[in-house]
Design goal:
alpha/beta; 4-stranded antiparallel β-sheet; globular
Length: 243
Amino acid sequence: MALATPLPAAEAVFRARGLTKTYRMGEVEVPALRGVDLDLYRGEFVVLLGPSGSGKSTLLNILGGLDVPTAGEVWYEGHHLTGASERELTLFRREHVGFVFQFYNLIPSLTARENVAIVTELAGQPMTPEEALARVDLADRMDHFPAQLSGGQQQRVAIARAIAKRPAVLLCDEPTGALDSATGVRVLEALERVNAELGTTTVVITHNADIARMAHRVLYLGDGRIVREVRNAQRMPAAELHW
């Protein structure tokens, strides 16, 4: 597996201050984030580690404009996301963010090429579907349907779909969670290649500390807070990165 190269001084893409998120379930309030401060930098590969319920997905969803905080503020390249309208958040997601989730969400009746083309038809300056699929080593599977592809290949189609619009940010929530370890490595190598070749700021949620050795930075979440930060994780023994 390739390792992320050290970053030079970089420009902050995201700035989050005092992020708090509380969900109400009947009479009960459930805190998901408790005052998170975070900067993410251009071209950075960041891994979020932590147990279930630690706030990782909530944080990712707020950064991606899929959710809004109960309190606190988020800026993207100087733009105040916290005060944005739903239309503005939709445009932000469409123009700047690519999402990769644990489940692939491919359309079964469309080929890999056609699944990617759905996104390229909406983007301003997209890659061709062929280029996006080639970047994840699926040039020879473009005309296959999802049912004809392995789980790892389907996830790489999902990555190709996410990067085809040339997003500045790629947000990945457990992208290898449904895969065996060997297949997961192929998927992670594709993400690392996208980060290195396109300079896409990449954030990956995982429970797997071994994945953290790909990262420029590892952030550990616990009880809705960032409780630890490790830089240059690729230079550390994997045993020292476990939660």
